[in-house]
Task: inverse folding
């Protein structure tokens, strides 16, 4: 059996991938920073900053945050971490999910006035003069996408933003947005157990248009690591406690899928998380996963996945075991699902 690839300690030259056709080049894997501030239990700012610094050492250039994470505090954390190394970072943040000072969710906005205000607020919290990749986090069904992207394009012209992105947009929306101003990246959830973008036309659409694809939750919100055995493993304020996939019979059925991933990983001589990330990386050079972690240990394990090579036969084997649609339960509770608009 091959030696288990658990981590990496030295400097690492990571593969680079192009997002879109406007010239944005990033590391093949990015770092999702959301969990450092919210949704996945308590955080530790010092460890989170150390994790960001280690990511840059290991060749990661793409850092992903959003104004709503915290709320508002994740951008400040990322800004502090990169203050003396801004030139090494492709900084991505998002707007559109409106939150109040106490964390309350106040809906979605994509009107031009809000776009401009949100960008200025993000620049201030991040402590930077420009954002490299600015996403609309969720599509506002009350505002034509042309108006939202038009306002985003003005930010590019003003030098506040370099490239534009969308998150969780449907194919028709992507086309209309891209016709207004070139879209560099689309971000949605994608992993061995979340493959709806293969079936709903999203992946085909971005490939036809030459838009890069950024995969969030490539580890199935941590489930594909094999570290989660019971819903009791989640902290009281962990988002996954209300996610349909982690409840009741869905949890048990999905745990069976994870055991298959563990079996395949054991045969490959890698960790389950590394196999899951290697699968996403193998989907194409236009795909960039952004696994989130707030600990150096798990970051190093994730980065090592970039060196795991899967043959076409292995990819086909994994997809036979976890075909599209295999996961039980929806990604979000119906009441808060604002995806694919």
Result:
């Amino acid at each position: 059996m091959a030696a288990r690839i658990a981590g990496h300690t030295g400097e690492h030259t990571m593969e680079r991938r192009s997002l879109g056709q406007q010239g944005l080049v990033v590391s093949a894997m990015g770092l999702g920073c959301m969990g450092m501030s919210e949704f996945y239990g308590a955080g530790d700012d010092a460890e989170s900053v150390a994790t960001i610094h280690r990511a840059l050492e290991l060749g990661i250039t793409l850092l992903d945050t959003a104004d709503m994470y915290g709320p508002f505090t994740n951008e400040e954390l990322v800004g502090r971490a990169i203050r003396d190394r801004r030139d090494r970072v492709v900084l991505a943040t998002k707007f559109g999910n409106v939150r109040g000072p106490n964390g309350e969710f106040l809906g979605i906005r994509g009107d031009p006035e809000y776009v401009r205000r949100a960008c200025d607020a993000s620049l201030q919290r991040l402590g930077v003069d420009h954002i490299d990749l600015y996403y609309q986090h969720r599509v506002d069904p009350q505002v034509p996408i042309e108006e939202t992207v038009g306002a985003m394009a003005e930010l590019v012209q003003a030098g506040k933003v370099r490239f534009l992105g969308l998150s969780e947009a449907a194919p028709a929306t992507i086309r209309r947005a891209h016709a207004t101003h070139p879209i560099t990246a689309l971000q949605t959830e994608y992993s061995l157990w979340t493959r709806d973008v293969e079936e709903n036309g999203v992946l085909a659409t971005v490939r036809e248009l030459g838009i890069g694809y950024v995969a969030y939750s490539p580890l199935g919100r941590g489930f594909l690591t094999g570290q989660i055995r019971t819903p009791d493993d989640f902290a009281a304020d962990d988002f996954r406690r209300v996610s349909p996939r982690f409840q009741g019979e869905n949890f048990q059925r999905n745990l069976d899928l994870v055991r298959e991933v563990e079996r395949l990983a054991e045969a490959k001589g890698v960790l389950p998380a590394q196999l899951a990330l290697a699968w996403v990386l193998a989907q194409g050079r236009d795909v960039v996963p952004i696994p989130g972690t707030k600990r150096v240990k798990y970051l190093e394990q994730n980065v090592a996945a970039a060196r795991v090579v899967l043959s076409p036969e292995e990819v086909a084997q994994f997809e036979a075991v976890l075909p599209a649609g295999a996961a039980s339960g929806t990604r979000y509770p119906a009441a808060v699902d604002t995806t694919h608009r």
User: Anything to note?
Assistant: The mean pLDDT is 93. The radius of gyration is 19 Å. Residues 248-268 form the longest helix (21 residues). The chain is about 35% helix and 15% strand.
